[in-house]
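Weekly structure sync - notes
Attendees: PM, LS, DV (DV joined late)
Agenda: review two folding runs queued last week.

Item 1: First target. Sequence and structure tokens pasted below for the record.
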Amino acid sequence: MDPLDILTQKANVRPYFQGVFSADDWQMNACEVYGRFVVDEKAIGLGAFFHDANVPEEYRFELDAHIYKQAIELFMNSAGIEKLFLNAHPDVLLAHGEEFIDLFLTFEREFSLPLESVVIEICVHTFQGDLEHLHHFITYLKTYGMKISLDRIGVKETNLDVIGLLSPHYVKVNLRPMLDQTKPQSYDDVLQSLTHLARKIGAVMIYQEIETEFQLQYAWRNGGQYYQGNFLDRPSSFITPATSQDEALKQTFSRFINHEKKKIMKRMDIEKQLQRKMAETLERQKAHQCYDEWLTHVAADFQNESFRLYVCDRDGFQRSANLVKKEAVWELQKEYNGKNWGWRPYFLENIVRMDMGAKGILSDLYSDIETKQHIRTFSYPISQQLYLFMDLSYEYLFDQNDHV
């Protein structure tokens, strides 16, 4: 639609609301506002209008203000909704900063709007302006109690440096790529990095564009405190807490919990099996100074489980070669002898844990640098100074139903 047609027919522009659900109580207690042009009972999205750089900022600010006012009136008359997510383009914020602040101070006086209930949602991956200027303005907004959300963060638009600089209260991760068969193999790892960064800066993870139960389960397993998408609630011209879904959501999340508990029990069972088998192996094959030769004997007992073994000391220095299985044949990679792995996350922590517990440890799933497959590592103390590290193959984990 032509921007002028939209502005001259503002009476047809209305807010639509989509619920945001909490992992804490499985209830809808927030909602996001979208602008819609409604004609002949058909609601047309206005995303193209607000993201079109050719549309002057004053036009976009005028329409934003029109939508905000209607949305806030409905919000203040709705029970059970604690937060209102309002979209704003960074260019508009920087061009009309003082007017933007004055507008919300007016809403505070006119509607008794608690400013701490307002979340300003911005999309930064297409922003070409001055990030420092945006950072200062966002800091200014925070002094009024308003919250900041970064919208549609994804694998291709992670902007980790921008997230760190702007330090938002919420980080919204787009899960639509999960439905794309061509998504990069590193997708899970990048999202884990986002989750880790959000936790470090004290931001809450919101997963959006949830269209399936599988995506909802993924969001729940990967640090999502809030969820949004058509699977849970479709945009509507009214704020209607989705109480009709309460029982269904309880059953859904109960399935997630039971599934996760079974996975944890399975992982503990694998760890116990490896502990027992390793103890039996060490009874027959006592560790000796020729670690490379000793590893070949150990490998014979773990043909099905492992594809790589090596020995390290308590400071992380490798005291053996890598023994690697390639096409069912074990090969020594002597160039790894003497390398230090103390820089790896959790490496030294696991050494201390093995010392204190006097038993082996099964790692979380992670992507192997060389094979790029998801694997786990089983580490085991073989003396007071030495530790065996056994990388478990994807095939073995798959057979154990422990690969996801």
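Item 2: Second target, run right after the first with the same settings.
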Amino acid sequence: MRRLDRSSGGGLRRVQHAHRVRQPVGALDPRSDIRLGRTSHRLRHGVPSIIAVAGLALVLAALQPWGTGLAPIDVRVAEARRVPAAAGRAADPGVVVRDPAPALGPHGDRVAALDRFDDNHATGRDVRRGGPLRLRPMAPELLTGYVWPIRNARITNTYGLGRPGNFRLDGVRFHDGIDVSSFCGARITAAHDGVVLVASRHHETTVGWVGDLAPFRERMERKHLWRSQAIAVVIDDGNGYRSVYAHLGLAAVEKGDIVQAGDLIGWEGASGNATGCHLHYSLFSPLETATLALDPKVAKKTKLPAQEIARVDPMLVLPPPSEAGISWGWGAR
């Protein structure tokens, strides 16, 4: 996993973090294997043999804690990561214990553990009753830490009913994000701290489609259409939501990169089905159960699923447009 830092010259440098786990030297490690020769180290039968074997066992036990080498190394690492999250809380019968491992949302998307959720935004497993952990998305009005992903630009299309877009809500045309335009090559930055899930034209599994993507992929491969897809960066914002930055001309990050709000993630472009250079920014939670319908004509042509996870209005979480030099384009509202 890489972390992106901004240097004094405005550029970026990647700092590599290598996580290596060394297996302790012990009873299961070949380096500790004690071989007894058949001649010079032959043990006699009887009490001396028993004493020698017992002494050898004590030496091996001293090299590592009992049982440490019995589990595979990946199991021990998983246990080491799991236990601290619930340490000190399981003893309290009124505390909900959350498993830090990713869970599946209602549409099959993997969702990271959300320790920031409180009782108003999550229901979980009571340690006394057991049962699965169930989370629901935090109210957008409570989300914090967001900044505009582009500066000195104009809003050309807004979120909601009646706006130009490929989605439908109760049969009415719907736009699932906001379009903001500056100029081709303008800097696009992260709107929130998070981890990059994808940065490419192959982003279909991370943007919340509900249904089978196999027909879509088969068509794209058969007709060699991947270059017609929009370049998108999708970031897990760490609060249960994902930010989608679409139609980039070029991405500046890669999958697994850790970013902070304001870090460069790409440049404005017109990749994919775009009439000109702009940024399409949308925000959704994999935990959301509501959906938007894709225009049936578009679904039939592209073989995409008929629905996507519903989005929220990005204007609910972003600061006032004037703070970033954002103005309203003609007809945008």
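Discussion on item 2: The CA atoms of residues 270 and 276 lie 5 Å apart.
Action: LS to circulate a short write-up before next sync.
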